[in-house]
Design goal:
378 residues; alpha+beta; 5-stranded antiparallel beta sheet; binds adenosine-5'-triphosphate
């Protein structure tokens, strides 16, 4: 396996009228599993194809191990790619599909090739299928074969392009676990592209979030979840999405009073909380963000409680998602024992340590806590 370094990578199409990837820099450690996520058209596949050598970068460099591979052809890069559509040869058996890549990329003897294919097939639990052709296999089996074909080559780098998108939800979950198991056992360096933030969060050692071809944030999933760098990341990571409310801020005894123009919403931030933010806040407009799981229903009408009406109750088994009329799209995630009906009036509250404030012009998170700051307690 190898470490991978991407520096100021850029890809333009149509003589620069389309910028698919802009100034992307990433350092991927040996054995690290990095997920790349973002909405359709954000540049995920283009990034992966540049890493594979299937697409020539307009500028920037790609280093795999110690070799600058920016201008190295795909077939000369020690990279294996697993695609959404499996890309198996239909007329070859499973064995031949797995052995073919090995023959193309290594100088092993036939006996050694056979040993490695059988060993990998056993690891992937597909040894019973070795004589079958791809059209005799289910989608899940095909993807296991495609994975096995990549693994058997023992490449420096694995690239996954939405490999589980064609599978049903249950199979997707078990294949996710399977890929994680393999990654742990084999210590593979991998870049895994998905549009599914849940998949990216659960699988990645590190998650890289792109939008419009630009890197938004990279970090451990929990770090990105807790400290999103901007409103885009805050809204993209987590399901249901973070709630956002446009607020006006005015000084309030060293802290800030945040009110929405609709008047029902008022929230006081203590001076201690404001003091821990990296940015000095003042009288201004902000977008307040709070995650659905941090909003609770309270009996009290004490400070920092907000009255709202229940629009929809969405039961998801373990929890209920309450859609509330605070804004057009405001959700509280509460226990399934909270029995409410549409039209019920409720009082909401959340902790000041759970809110984020974003600059409405730039989207930047202006409430980022200082490094090593103790947690805010009310
Ligand atoms: P999706 O999730 O829909 O696959 P993506 O994040 O993988 O999207 P890319 O396929 O990398 O996005 O595309 C990024 C941008 O580059 C898009 O605007 C796309 O239209 C454009 N693009 C990609 N390939 C080409 C091409 N060959 N010619 C012109 N534009 C392209």
């Amino acid at each position: 396996m190898a470490r991978v370094s991407v520096e100021s990578l850029r890809k333009e199409y149509d003589v620069g009228s389309i910028v698919a990837v802009s100034d992307l820099s990433l350092e991927i450690e040996d054995g690290e599993f990095v997920t790349v996520v973002g909405p359709s058209g954000c540049g995920k596949t283009t990034t992966l194809r540049m890493l594979a050598g299937l697409e020539q970068a307009t500028s920037g460099t790609i280093t795999i191990g110690t070799e600058d591979v920016t201008d190295v052809h795909a077939k000369n890069r020690d990279v294996a790619m697993v695609f959404q559509n499996y890309a198996l040869y239909p007329h070859k058996t499973v064995f031949e599909n797995m052995a073919f890549g090995l023959r193309m990329s290594t100088e092993l003897s036939e006996a050694e090739r056979e040993r490695r294919v059988v060993e990998t097939a056993e690891m992937m639990d597909i040894e019973e299928l070795l004589e079958d052709k791809p059209d005799e296999l289910s989608g899940g089996q095909k993807q296991r074969v495609a994975l096995g074909r990549a693994i058997v080559r023992e490449p420096d780098l694995f690239l996954f392009d939405e490999p589980l998108s064609n599978l049903d939800a249950k199979l997707r979950t078990s294949m996710r676990a399977e890929i994680q198991r393999l990654q742990n056992e084999l210590g593979i360096t991998a870049v895994y592209v998905t549009h599914d933030q849940h998949e990216a969060m659960t699988m990645g050692d590190r998650i890289v979030i792109l939008n419009g071809g630009e890197l938004q944030q990279q970090g451990a999933p929990t770090e990105v979840y807790k400290n999103p760098t901007n409103e885009f990341v805050a809204g993209f990571v987590g399901s249901p999405s973070m709630n956002f409310v446009d607020v006006d801020a005015e000084p309030n005894g060293g802290g800030l009073r945040l009110t929405s123009s609709e008047g029902e919403f008022s929230f006081d931030l203590s001076s201690a909380a404001v003091g821990r933010y990296e940015t000095d806040l003042d009288s201004s407009r902000y977008t307040l963000g709070v995650r659905p799981e941090n909003v609770s229903i309270t009996d009290s009408s004490a400070n920092n409680s907000i009255t709202a009406t229940v629009d929809v109750v969405e039961p998801v088994g373990s929890d209920n998602f309450l859609h509330l009329d605070v804004t057009e799209e405001f959700i509280a995630r509460v226990g399934s024992d909270v029995t409410l009906e549409p039209g019920d009036r409720v009082t909401l509250t959340f902790d000041e340590s759970d809110i984020h404030l974003f600059d409405p012009k730039t989207g930047a998170n202006v409430s980022t806590r200082e490094r090593d700051a103790p947690p805010v307690t009310p």
